[in-house]
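quick one before i forget lol
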Amino acid sequence: MNAGHHPLPKDLQACAKALLQRPSDSHKYDFGRVVVIGGSRSMAGAPALAGMAALRAGAGVVEIAVPESIAATVAGFNPCLIVQPLAEDAQGVFAAESLPGLQHLAQRADVLVLGPGMGRAPHLAETVLAIWQTFPRTLLVDADGLFALASLPADALAQPPGPRILTPHAGEMRRLSGSGLADRSALERAAQDFAIARHAVLVLKGPQTLITDGIGRHHNGTGNPGMASAGSGDVLSGVIAALSAQQLPPLVAARFGVWLHGLAGDFAADAMSTPAVTATDVLDHLPAAWKAVAGDLPA
């Protein structure tokens, strides 16, 4: 397979070209700091996948805040990650008293990823709400962060102080919308309505993933069923966050990120077979996806 089978939309080609042509005097901080907040005693891999994907998608610095008992495990996945341990409770999730530390780490983030592997303890909803209401730059919420958002009153989420990107799969979208919608077209309408109400970009994952800000609707053409595997969404969160940290607008970062992630998954399926694809295979094929983008762009 080559990138020509899944062409990058023409309106995204200029931003892709700009990302690929880095100035010779570049510094790591020119490409943004992504901070990932997540992880729990039973899910150390999720924030690590998001962090490693952010590195492969071009972020200059990636920092991960995790409960203290898993910090060494997360750091062991990749030496390029900066890992910050914070207080945890008896269940191995962030303790309520970790919130000031999380907010301190968030202050230096260009983009914040909230939720991968974080767990679903009731007190975490308060942590998610506090960050949603105070973080002034781009916040991407995924996985357990979305579970927490679904438990919060709608008016508490209505006026965020900065851009918001949400990346639910169908089940998470049903929970966010408070409905039992089964029909994909109805879910897409709910996603569009939710995006408008929360002033957010919403990525409804699945076949031909929908990316919408409530006004525009964009369906993605890359990807395959092999990507329906644990951790694939964490990789996507890291990719979108890194593109956003490189100053792409939220809707553009989401569209390009979904496309690039899907292309990496297509390369992984070609190499491994569709049933054998794992999230780490998608991560490992991001360099090939970038090379395909570079070879496919007009001169």
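fyi Residues 250-272 form the longest helix (23 residues).
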